[in-house]
Sequence to fold (436 residues):
Amino acid sequence: MPNKRKLFSFWAIFVPDALLLYLALWLTIMLRYGEQATSELWMKHAIVFSVIYVLWLLVLFIHGLFELPTFRRYSTLVINLVSAMAINVLVAVLYFYFQPTLILTPRRFLLLDAGIAFVLVLGWNLVVKDFLKNRLGQGVYLFSLNDELKDLEREINRHQYLGFKVLGHLCEQDLETASFAPGAGVILPDNLRARPQILAKFYEFRKSGVNFYNYRAFYEDVFRRVYLSQLNEAWFLENVNYGEKKLYNLLKRVIDLLSGALAAVVFAITFPICALLIKLSSPGPVFFIQERVGKDGKVFKVYKYRTMAGGPTDTWTSVNDPRITRVGKFMRKSRLDELPQFINLLIGNMSLVGPRPEQVGIVKDLRQQIPFYDERHLVKPGLTGWAQLNNVYAGNLDETKLKLQYDLYYIKNHSLMFDLEIILKTIYYIFTWKGR
Fold:
């Protein structure tokens, strides 16, 4: 199954990376101390560096170095690893700074250890990239009755680094002469329950090593978004929990309150300089207040720093939008413009994680143009969300449909662990200045 494949790739990278960090530590001790290296010295360093390595692995995770998309290009892999190791060195320096009682001399030792760790981890990741590219490739056939898998084929072809390749298309007439190599996959549509003769034919292949996937489950497991084409009521009834998760909601509310309080402190410290820069950049108010659509379709006011010239409008923000001021561009990329939303977090009409809220006028139009668009309002909107982490911004109808795919995937799978993943990756997202 694709999700097992994803888990394999994660552990195939994570576990060796963890072991390679300790190998780098051993090599560093041998190079630094030579014949004076003892088991006692090794244990002393291993205890201290175990805390550091947990933090280092977390940074590697935030940089996407345990995920297949990072292995799409060599440049992405190297750049992400360089960025991660630079941050890791800073993390270790801060750790030693706040632990002055440690009887270690980490200065040159730390740099040597980080350098060796970088070489070892990079080498292993390059091996994994080559392995995934050349040895884990799986051919799949698409079986359909009315070309309902066109979107899936296009996405598989666009993401060949994930290891899947479309070998061909099948229709009902092909089943009489079809043959499959062991390990090949056949992706099936939903509407075969009404065609028992077709299911019986596929059932004959069950012992030949052929893997069968439902196209929606395959799409969601591989791309981590919902297959929007031909989405129907049955999917929501079978996949979305419409009941309240009381414990989850309680814990999430506590996180929102703590985040709102922290954001309020940062807001108070940075407000004078932010307000001055906004006033100097263009005439108008410091704050941007606009009505947005929240949970259950309720309208609320969202608070942000003003980043554009002119007043609020019910229009999308485009790439390089001329309304965005120079100061506004900086504030958007640094996410400083979101700081006033601590008010929304404390009030409770927004959460730290969730689909981004849209303007009232835009939502009114999209309800008419996109089926099931209102389902994204089943949960509270968030300051950050799954769609934002995947570089999806709604600037037109097509982008909105793609954004809805990620929003519905979040709604189906939302949990504290998923929220934590989004929060951690948002930190990386901010420091890499992505978005608009």
User: Anything to note?
Assistant: The chain has three domains: 2-134, 138-223, 246-431. The mean pLDDT is 84. The two ends are 36 Å apart (CA to CA). Residues 334 and 352 are 17 Å apart (CA to CA).
